[in-house]
Design goal:
36% of the residues lie in helices and 19% in strands. The protein is of the alpha+beta class. The strands form four sheets. Strands 1-6-5-4-7-3-2-8-9 form a nine-stranded mixed β-sheet, with helices on one face. The chain has a five-stranded mixed β-sheet with strand order 10-11-14-12-13, with helices on both faces. A hairpin with a 4-residue loop joins β5 and β6. The longest helix has 24 residues.
Amino acid sequence: MTTVDEPQHEQHAFEADVTRLLHMMVHSVYSDKDVFLRELISNAADACEKLRYESISNPRLSSDGHEPGILVALDEEARTLIVEDNGIGMNREEMIDALGTIARSGTKAFMDRLDAAKTGEKAELIGQFGVGFYSSFMVADRVDVISRRAGDVEAAKWSSDGKGRYEIVSVDPGQAPARGTRVVLHLTEEAKKYTNKWTVEKIIRDQSGHVPVPIRLVEKAGGEPSQVSDGAALWTKQKSDISEQDYSDFYHGISGQYDEPLANVHFRAEGRYEYTTLAFIPGSQPFDLFDPDRQGRMKLYVKRVFITDEAELLPRYLRFVRGVIDTPDLPLNISREMIQESPVLAAIKKGVTSRILSSFEKMAETEADKYSKFWDLFGAIIKEGIYEDLERRSQLLKLARFRSTASNEATRSLADYRDAMKEGQSAIYYISGSSLEQLQSSPQLEGFRAKGIEVLLLTDGVDNFWPTNVANFEGKPFKSVTQGLADLDAVVGQEDSDESARQTPPDVDAFVEFARNLLGEEVADVRVSGRLTESAVCLVAPEHGPDRQLEKLLQGAGRLQTVSKPILEVNARSKLVIDIASTHDQAFREDAAWLLLDEARILDGDKPANPRAFAERQARLFALAMNRDI
């Protein structure tokens, strides 16, 4: 226990990131400033939960017998709003760390996005991201924070006008809470409505009515507080006693977002281990969804005591799910190290993951439109599980939806693809790339379209990896249309009626052999194509090498020093190829062969290997076409 020292008065400057955030808070126009109260109450509830947790190992911290609680006090005459809790509190050093710096990288990412947004879009950003304590400066021209850490004698006061600096001064313990934190907002003239009892009570009920700490409201100094929330944890109630609005309000509080949840999964598991889960599927993408360092957002409770929000309670491919898991089967003083190794949590993680995936299956079967929206939002993340989660791969493949050549708009399941397969078709064909438009114009699709064979169009980054890691779907292997031989002759489709049209002209055979010898340093082979019907040439990967898109991705990431040589395929029925092959001028044939290779590179999204040589060859052929020398 500390003792009272001489009063100390310190001036500090905010860290640069905080200064940026405060500037945006004050100078931006937001559609809903009410968010500040939700953030302050959320912080107060967290402080009460931390006190509960620390009291497990140090009961003296809460030995006064007062149950955790939050008091919101209004004073219209003084134009102040106070949020006070009797939670863990802060000492002087913790105030500097908590109120002078931004600890979460997510807040900095929020600011970067806010900075980049147009002025008209800023109103839509607030409420979608947790901006925490600093949101107070949207409604206050000065904020005072008086706090005493549980178990300490000394108390301190933090004060700032939000313009770049703050001060910390020691205060008389008699002017501070016995323990916990008192946040005093000196409201601006425009924000004086937040001293109205009915306005504030409605905000609390709408946004914070389900925090697991009781909330009381007092209208004026010396008045009698009224109970606004009883602190009953929503997840402990019967589903029949919870309205959709209750679920929505709880989701807003726990997620820090203002969108409506797309769905929720609420259940109690009994058996070897008991636990209650309330999980939400957001109605929009969290802004840091694709952050490689992003962790899950499920909160772990033990007997309604908050333990941590950093435990990996779900696989990473479900990191968009928000909610709580509460179990009585863990010790209250469980450490983070024990959490990672706990067989209880491993069993809970498995059970909750299965229930959430089952809810996706039910949504896909009974609410197709909602599932389509869900897949648009989170399908790219779910596909990470196809790559990573061997145990649930089959289930995830059934959940997956894809764009394909069979439909311009609607997505297709692999079961839809299987049912539409042509007679003699032995594989599920796909092509991967950076955009739908690029893939739809790819020459490698021509022969498949001519046969009426459906091809999956894969545009997500993870699509370059999982197909090569998955053996098959219900016995049908995945095969890239840009890899190996097309082997379309075995498939019954729209066959050529004229058998002679399918024969390779002798001149083309000779030109292919000529190009094979000429281009041997650049390509693994030159051969007649079984997949082209319109384009003259295309590039494909060898049968047993990596897919070309995957290989380029790995090289771009520095994972491959060199790439394998592609195969140049030539359309033997292309008029351009036939005309080139029938010409016996050696120089012309050489230029034509090199230009065909560069054309294939361009069609594949690459540049000519030697732009100057490409331009010179093109100029010589232009000159030849116009019957003049160059």
